Amino acid sequence: MLFKKGIFKLACTLVLEFLFLTFANSQEGTGSLPVRIMFYNVENMFDILDDPLKDDDEFLPDGLRRWNGSRYNKKLNSVYKTIIAAGEWSPPAIVGFSEIENRKVLEDLVYSTGLSNFNYGIIHGESPDPRGIDVCMIFRKDIVRIIEYKLWIPHSLNKNDFHSRNVLYIKCAILLDTIHLMINHWPSKRGGVLPGEPVRKEIAMMVRNAADSLSAASPDVSKIIILGDFNCDPDDSVIQMLVNQGESGGEHLVNMAKDKKSTAYGTYRYMGAWEILDQIIISEGLLNCATGIYAYPSGFRIFNPDFLLKKDLKYPGLTPYSTYRGYRYQGGFSDHLPVLLDLGVR
User: Fold this and answer.
1) pTM summary value
2) What separation in angstroms does the CA of 89 have from each of 62, 110, 156?
3) Are 228 and 177 in contact (CB under 8 A)?
4) Most buried residue, 58, 107, 131, 266, by most Cβ within 10 Å?
5) CA separation for the pair 329, 65 (Å, rounded)
6) Quick check: helix, strand or coil at residue 215?
7) What is the DSSP string of 262-324?
8) How large is the angle between the packed helices 69-87 and 103-111, nearest 10 degrees?
């Protein structure tokens, strides 16, 4: 009986993939059906329960921020609304997150909001960050199949001394095409560039070396997506270290956010100035490849609908409508704007 159920499940999966691919191919010439990837720093998305192993005291009902069930549920529904809006006709196939406290938060998001209608799966692992904020991912099981995932920290750093976020690596299949994802949340530069700079460099080199290894191991075209909150702009020297091939060559990486610096918005606003801290970097093999899943220059964008913005009370212009302004609760969405990448299918 179990064997028959397994065969039936596999057959259903293959039929779904066939129908999706057939529909995608039917859209060629008018813009192929996009497979949408989203990344969103959700700004301190904590539950209301005390975890004695984490520094989460601020986000408890009796903590400094007076975080309670009502505020938590509002936050869940705000993130749900953002994901649905970002998907337009259909919710994104993959959503990467940073600043999620734990798996329970993801389960509440996926199973207790309208996202429950879309059969999202969860990839999560605990990070060494003292506050417990993690990088993680949800994915639509009707589009994405997970092959494996791992949590990385640089081998060059002592595990006991590493107090930032892991890089989450996911190998997955989308329409029978293999995609490699690396989700990042690098240490902040706030409070001075130097304290976090060595760790950022080590993480960048780890990701760079991983991309080169995946490319070398690929018999065909390597399809790599590196996304996340890098806590620095696309022209930062550490981002350049990640993107540039160097003297020894290696996989050519393309920062899809690089040309967005001239736009009116970034993903984060600091002292009245927009920054693009949230970026998506891809392998050149994914860009305009001849078959299967591919990326294209116009496929990247910062998602900035009106409801995610509000008037900046201190500086001219708009700013992300955050959950908190300092320690004052204002009930918004996040202090970051999401980024999106559409992938076509040939």
Assistant:
1) 0.88
2) 41, 19, 44
3) no
4) 266
5) 7
6) helix
7) GSS--SEEETTEEE--EEEEEEGGGBT-SSSEEEEEEEEEE---GGGEEE-SSSSSEEE--SE
8) 60
